[in-house]
Structures are given as structure tokens and as C-alpha cells.
Amino acid sequence: MAGVSVQSLLEPEAGLALTVVAGRAGLLRKIGGARIQKPGLALTGFTQHVHPERLQVLGLTEIAYLRSLDAASRLRGAQALGSLRPCVIVVTRALEVPSELTLALDEVGVPVLSTPLMSSVFISRVQKLLELKLSPSTQVHGVLIDVLGVGVLLLGKSGIGKSEAALDLVLRGHRLVADDIVEIRKRQPDIIIGASSELIKHHMEIRGLGILNIKDLFGISAVRDSKRVELVIELSDWNEDEEYDRLGVEERRYALLDVALPMLRIPIRPGRNIASIIEVAARNQLLKQQGKHSARDFQDRITRALDENEPVSDPGVTADVGPSSNPGISPSGHSGGRTPVVVSPTDEVE
């Protein structure tokens, strides 16, 4: 079963301050979801709608209820909860766990943990931790950089110049997130977060220079640990036979963990300042997020201008044809003033 092991919650970096009270044999059990449940009614014997794959929390109310019962009733309530084989039980506020509860759960191998945190604080922390650990993830070959607050993921074949462009952007004051390997995670419903692998964090490979530590070279302000991906830019070799978007009206999308992200394709050729183009693309993306689409606005202006200047050519419209070059001769060949002419759909007016 895929999930998060109970034992991983005991690690200091988890920040949950958990200790084992009972059921140590069940520490390898898996937590199958990020949602938390408080099974108060299960202690009364009503065990419907309790989800064993979820982490179960017993707080002040639940423990106080157990203490209000006699020993036999406490044991029955604990056995009713244990019969569901929940993945783990956590008692908050460092409350003393009734012996009947530890006995019943220890017999079925259900771990019982204790934390000094209040229920609300613990639930908030553990839910964020489980969402992070259980979220869909993948790795992509590319460079992730924070440009003006926009997370830009640079893609392209090896040697195309992704790292060089990112280094130029760092020199302009932007921040490196990851180079070469970008670890991608999805946060519900449609947020994509990119980060660097711990092994190569803050490092960049530049052909001819080798491995550079960006944090040491440019300071802590030149790097960051993670960033939401908001724009994907693919760098490719210039191909004379390929048509490239010159208006910016077309909206490309790049699917990453089933999330469609805005995408641009930038052809590479000598003389093009790729860092400047990426920076402008990030600025343009900020405008789009605020509802300002420059290319579409320009297209609308052109369309309106063409509509205003378009001649009327509806069937059956009566048009006045001016006099010919011979004074006194009407278009029909008669002398006199102007003569109305009815234009049919098949007539050609020169």
C-alpha cells in the first residue's frame, strides 16, 4: 500500500514532537491519506464512517470522555476502536493515555503516539506534512528560476543553453531554484511546485567553468529552495523551415502532472539575447495574470480598425454614382444631373 509510514512522523525534522506510548510493532503501518479524523463516537461503540487509513487524533474531549467511564466501559470503547485496525492513534496535549486504551491497541499492533502540541496545532502541521509526502511528484530535466516572482521552467535538449541563460538572469538579480534536475510536486488542486534535489541544491553546471555554487558566488538572495511553476519556456534550435509565433495570440500549454501550464517556444540563434527574452516573457506573464493580454488587445484594435473602414456592399443598396468626366452627361448617357443607380449583387462597380 502506498502511503507514509508512521515511523517517519517520529523524525525530528517532521516537527511533530511525537513519542511512542504503545504498539511499537505497528510503526511500519502506512497512512493512506492526508485527511485527519477524530474518532470520538467510535469510543462509544459507533464505529461507522471511521476510516482506518487516516491518522486518528484523540484530544482533550475524547480522553476526558474515557476517564468519565468505569474501567469496563473504557476497555469496551478501546476495543471497539482497536477492532477497526487504524493505522495510528495520536493523543495530543501530552495527556495521560488510559491504560485500557494502550492495552487494547497494543494487542492489535496499532501504534499509539503522544505529542505535547494542542490538537489544532498538531492537525495543521501533520496535514501539511502528509499533503507534501502524499502529493504526486516527478522529475524533469531543466532549470527552474524565479524571474520577477514568476516561476519559469526552462526546458530543452542538453547543451541548448538553459544554464547559461539562467546564469545571465542571476546576474540581473533573479533567483535560481534548481539546475539540471527539477523535482516537481503537485499541490491540490492545480498548483505545481518545483525544487532542487538536496544533493545539487544551489549548484549550477556551466560548460567550460564546471560546477558553480550560486549561493557562495552571489549570496543567499540569489537562490531559493522552491517556487511555484507558472510559465514553461522551451528553448530549441532555430529552424528556417518552421513557423514560429510572431503575434503572441496563440496559447500553448504544457502538461505537468495533469496540470496545463502556459508555454512558450523560443528559438535559439546567434545574436538573440535569451535572458532578455525570458525576462520580458515573465513580465508579460505577470500582465496576463492581471487580465492584460497585449497581443489580443492589439489584434482587437486591428480588427476594429478594419471593420470601421470596410465598404458597404449589401444587395439592393441604392448608390449615387457621380457625374462622368464629360460635363452635362449623366452616367446613363442622358444630359442633366446625377441619376440614381440600383446595384445588384452581380454588378461590378469600378
Describe this entry's structure for a reader.
This protein has 350 residues and is of the alpha/beta class. The chain has two domains: 4-133, 3-Layer(aba) Sandwich (Udp-n-acetylmuramoylalanyl-d-glutamate--2,6- Diaminopimelate Ligase, Chain: A, domain 1); 137-289, P-loop containing nucleotide triphosphate hydrolases (Rossmann fold). The chain has helices at residues 60-67, 71-82, 99-107, 119-134, 162-171, 214-218, 274-289, 294-309, and strands at residues 4-5, 19-22, 30-31, 36-37, 55-58, 89-91, 112-114, 137-147, 150-155, 175-187, 191-196, 203-206, 210-213, 226-228, 231-237, 252-256, 259-268, 318-320, 340-342. The strands form five sheets. An eight-stranded mixed β-sheet has the order 14-11-10-8-9-15-17-16. A five-stranded mixed β-sheet has the order 2-7-6-5-4. α2 (71-82) runs parallel beside α3 and α5 packs across α7.
